[in-house]
Write a structure and sequence with these properties.
This protein has 11 helices and 12 strands. The protein has 377 residues and is an alpha+beta fold. It has an 8-stranded mixed beta sheet with strand order 4-5-6-3-7-12-9-8, sandwiched between helices. The chain has a two-stranded antiparallel ribbon with strand order 1-2. A two-stranded antiparallel sheet has the order 10-11. Belongs to the 2-oxoadipate dioxygenase/decarboxylase family.
Length: 377
């Protein structure tokens, strides 16, 4: 059985390029591509889509012809190279902080080493003072991503948007951030709905960060907070009301999770149930909230995730405590009914169930909850 430690031995007190200390370990310059190129803005690309209804939400499939794809091709190779450099840096920070995610990627690669594609990348934000969804979404929109449906999770006081990549980015070959561009899922805490005390804490730190929201992608790729480290008592206040809020306070714009697209694997692990069994056999705990396998009402989107790793954190008052970090998710998207008769070798990503499901997302969010972390221990 493979056992992975969920704790790093040293406290996260590394300095960042901002005025204050970072809550994540500093990374050697050689560990990720330097952010040395200027940002390049791209006009937003739009593509013909067919809507498919599922529950209370609508999901889209792309049915572009070859000429459509060519007309919307991503022509700026330098811009794409920079975009991938940024994603690589985000991924490096994520893997360095989360040994479970790194170990599972290596484990899957040991069985299915042809290509591991990411279904989506996920981020958490504070919906206040410009620090919400738009702060991180602007980077992806500049590179041709398109905003899609909004999801609401009233019980958690959250809303989310997901963004689809340019059609022309769905290239064959390459793994992870060097493979087909993933969807992006960004959520935000509806701060105005929180208690006055919690609002005060969140506004205090985002307010002190000034224009930090304009550098969300940079902060994510460097593993840095754009605000100061909080007091431990403030973290406890947020955790008592919203574990999402507490997570965001100490992790900022760091990748909350990456998601392996299971149906793009070539081995028997392409079946998410087989993958879940394989992961558990190797000693990893999966998020059990609502059952290990989360299935959309239409049965076409199946998701699961590990329990988040924990890392020691040095709070501004000198208190050292363990805090939840990130996790890794798995998603299988089944073929839409109208394409069920297509030969398997002709099925493309746009023939499959697109979008996200509120019920699934609600349970996946629990991967960083105290209940799941305690169960892991």
């Amino acid at each position: 059985m493979r056992l992975v430690s969920t704790m790093f031995s040293s406290c996260l007190c590394s300095s960042a390029i901002t005025k204050t200390a970072s809550p994540v370990p500093s990374l050697a310059a050689s560990s990720f591509q330097p952010l040395r190129r200027a940002f390049v803005s791209f006009s937003h690309l739009s593509f013909p889509r067919n809507s498919v209804s599922s529950g209370n939400l609508k999901f889209c499939t792309v049915c572009a012809s070859k000429s459509d794809v060519q007309s919307h091709s991503f022509r700026h190779e330098g811009g794409e190279s920079f975009f991938r450099d940024v994603l690589t840096s985000m991924e490096t920070v994520y893997l360095n902080r989360n040994p479970t995610a790194k170990a599972i990627l290596e484990l899957v690669r040991s069985v299915d080493d042809e290509q591991i594609c990411y279904d989506h990348l996920a981020f958490r934000t504070f919906g206040v003072n410009g620090y919400g969804i738009k702060s991180i979404a602007s980077f992806f929109l500049d590179y041709g991503y398109t905003q899609q449906e909004e999801l609401r999770l009233p019980a958690k006081k959250l809303k989310a948007l997901w963004f689809s990549p340019p059609r022309s980015s769905s290239q064959n070959g390459g793994s992870g951030v060097n493979g087909p561009w993933p969807r992006v899922f960004i959520s935000e805490l509806l701060v105005d709905q929180m208690s006055p005390k919690t609002q005060e804490i969140i506004r205090k730190y985002t307010g002190k960060a000034g224009s930090g929201n304009k550098h969300a992608a940079l902060a994510s790729s460097l593993g840095s907070l754009t605000w100061e480290k909080p007091l431990y008592s403030e973290f406890q206040q947020l955790a008592g009301e919203s574990e999402y809020a507490a997570w965001t306070l100490v992790n900022g714009y760091a990748l909350n999770h990456v998601t392996i697209s299971t149906h793009r694997l070539k081995s028997n692990l392409r079946n998410i149930k087989s993958l879940n069994h394989f992961i558990e056999q190797n000693g990893f705990k999966l998020n059990s909230e609502g059952g290990v396998l989360k299935v959309s009402p239409d049965g076409l989107l199946m998701q699961s995730s590990t329990v988040a790793d924990s890392i020691p954190f040095c709070f501004s008052d000198g208190v050292n405590e363990s805090v939840p970090c990130s996790y890794i998710e798995f998603a299988e998207r089944l073929v839409l009914p109208q394409y069920k008769n297509l030969p398997e070798n002709e099925v493309q990503e746009f023939h499959r169930r697109d979008g996200f499901e509120v019920g699934n997302a609600d349970k996946i969010f629990e991967s960083t909850s105290k209940e799941q972390l305690t169960r892991r221990a």
